[in-house]
């Protein structure tokens, strides 16, 4: 078998980071003489850095009033007036006993939600397994031949595998629908703000060119925001349709299984199996609303398809509550947001304080702060003391900073809950004027000398990740465990070894129906088709390997 290896000449563009690894890595197009056409690269050992990107507002004030993030009793005060402190240094602590208990309670709620989902999945699997193993009723006057036990076992295994895939599809569709609704709320809030600005910025009569330009800019922003709202609403509709289709498919499988068991219930053994399969829904599980159970064809009193979607929604709510509880506990420690001298400490051990009460006042130093926001589903990745790179549009280079504080209460005004994160830059090496906007890159994880592959080699479906490997003749899909996820490379902790050849996205096939996977790789929210990017080259379409 002959292979022809060609180097791909990549266009120089900001979007290249989505699908391309760092410099020095060669990509190849492999052909086996048939219709197979794969771009492959070897898994290699490298360093990976995971960066959480956001933006924020610069504050150059030299005074910092350090306020408590939650209510409680002051357990200890670590500084006194006149002391010199650095950004991130502990100033005071609250008694965290009740806050720790709240975290434990939230962890137990997550465990119960996960256990409920597993119980319901098992009950459904039991019903389908029993249906596959139940002998069909004998037909009068016609002899029947026994079915080989091996055939029955094989059919049962195939049926259970199909059920598992249908269950996974429901859970993934439920999560996608939840995410789509949150994104639509966020877009609607942004549109409200943008269009309010457009109306406020209306140029008065005789306002001149400047006023007209401002009005035009505001109108453009409002129009763009309205378009984004429409796109997000369409995405919600599509996600809900996908969820309903997944529910209908699973409900059909369950209904057929229960019907099969009912038809053979004259047999004592079959009746026993039917009773075991008809598991009542626990009244302690999540009450999150889902499509009607009745519309999914499952028998009353059994674990329905819609119940599985409700279980998944319950898990996501419990996990969000756990994030909130952990954030509350983090706020039991009051840290300085900047370096300088302590000029006031108005609290002592034993004092009762409320959220927002000032625990110390710090002044001085050249440090500036950047207050950014991090979404609720990512805030668990952020910790005080983590390294941060701060940049601004139009300037080269970056200023080094650290996370010095994390907000307590989630802000839901935009529709998507997020937390305020304060970054302190002790010695700015670039211009960071007060009130300006800065781009913030929080280094949330690093991995040294680990097995890595390009991000475009990874396919994600919910919590599962897979890659495709190519040995020159056979294309194989492998499940892998991801570690640190960088912008261009991903750490593989299990499932691959250095030297394995993995398949990248097929440049000849457009991505369709893979918005979530693309978004995981680099922030795009839909199909990507960059036309005319290369110098004199044909249009470039990024896509997935052929199935």
From TrEMBL:
It is found in: Cell envelope. PANTHER family: BLL5650 PROTEIN, EFFLUX SYSTEM COMPONENT YKNX-RELATED. This is HlyD family efflux transporter periplasmic adaptor subunit. Keywords: Coiled coil. The lineage of its organism: Bacteria, Bacillati, Actinomycetota, Actinomycetes, Propionibacteriales. One of its GO terms (cellular component) is cell envelope. Residues 449-508 form the Multidrug resistance protein MdtA-like C-terminal permuted SH3 domain. InterPro entries: MdtA-like_C, UPF0194_transport. It comes from Nocardioides pocheonensis. Residues 125-159, 261-300, 519-547 are annotated as: Disordered. Pfam families: RND-MFP_C. Its main location: other. Residues 261-295 have a biased composition (Low complexity).
């Amino acid at each position: 078998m002959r292979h022809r290896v060609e180097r791909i000449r990549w266009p120089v563009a900001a979007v290249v980071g989505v699908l391309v690894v760092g410099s020095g890595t060669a990509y190849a197009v492999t052909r086996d003489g048939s219709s197979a056409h794969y771009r492959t690269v070897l898994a290699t050992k490298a360093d990976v850095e995971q960066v959480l990107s956001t933006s924020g507002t610069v504050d150059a004030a030299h005074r910092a009033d350090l306020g408590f993030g939650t209510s409680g009793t002051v357990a200890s005060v670590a500084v006194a007036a006149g002391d010199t402190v650095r950004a991130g240094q502990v100033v005071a602590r609250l008694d965290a006993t009740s806050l720790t208990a709240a975290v434990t309670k939230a962890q137990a709620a997550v465990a119960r939600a996960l256990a409920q989902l597993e119980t319901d999945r098992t009950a459904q699997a039991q019903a389908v397994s029993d249906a596959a193993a139940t002998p069909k009723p004998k037909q009068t006057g016609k002899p029947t031949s026994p079915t080989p036990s091996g055939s029955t076992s094989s059919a049962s295994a195939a049926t259970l595998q199909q059920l598992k895939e249908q269950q996974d599809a429901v859970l993934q569709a439920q999560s996608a629908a939840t995410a789509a609704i949150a994104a639509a709320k966020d877009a609607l809030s942004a549109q409200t703000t943008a269009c309010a600005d457009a109306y406020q910025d209306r140029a008065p009569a005789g306002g001149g060119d400047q006023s007209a330009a401002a009005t035009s800019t505001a109108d453009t922003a409002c129009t763009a925001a309205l378009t984004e709202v429409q796109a997000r609403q369409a995405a919600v509709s599509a996600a809900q349709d996908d969820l309903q289709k997944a529910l209908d498919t699973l409900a059909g499988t369950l209904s057929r299984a229960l019907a099969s068991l009912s038809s053979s219930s004259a047999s004592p053994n079959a009746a026993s199996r039917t009773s075991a399969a008809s598991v009542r829904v626990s009244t302690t599980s999540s009450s999150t609303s889902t499509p009607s159970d009745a519309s999914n064809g499952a028998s009353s009193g059994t674990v329905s398809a819609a119940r599985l979607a409700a279980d998944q929604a319950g898990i996501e709510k419990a996990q969000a509550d756990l994030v909130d509880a952990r954030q509350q506990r983090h706020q039991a420690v009051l840290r300085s947001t900047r370096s300088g001298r302590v000029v006031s400490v108005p609290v002592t051990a034993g004092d009762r304080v409320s959220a927002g009460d000032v625990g110390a006042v710090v002044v001085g130093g050249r440090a500036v702060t950047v207050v950014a926001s991090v979404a609720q589903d990512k805030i668990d990745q952020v910790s005080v003391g983590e390294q941060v790179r701060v940049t601004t549009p139009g300037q080269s280079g970056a200023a080094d900073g650290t996370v010095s504080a994390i907000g307590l209460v989630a802000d839901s005004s935009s529709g998507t809950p997020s937390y305020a994160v304060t970054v302190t830059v002790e010695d700015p090496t670039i211009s960071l004027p007060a009130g300006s906007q800065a781009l913030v890159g929080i280094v949330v994880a690093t991995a040294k000398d680990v097995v890595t592959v390009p991000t475009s080699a990874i396919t994600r479906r919910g919590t599962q990740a897979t890659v495709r490997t190519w040995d020159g003749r056979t294309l194989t899909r492998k499940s892998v465990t991801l570690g640190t996820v960088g912008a261009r490379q991903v750490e593989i902790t299990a499932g691959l070894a250095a030297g394995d050849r993995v398949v990248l996205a097929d440049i000849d096939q457009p991505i369709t129906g893979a918005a979530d996977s693309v978004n995981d790789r680099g922030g795009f929210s839909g199909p990507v088709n960059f036309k005319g990017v290369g110098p004199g080259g044909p249009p470039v379409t990024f896509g997935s390997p052929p199935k």
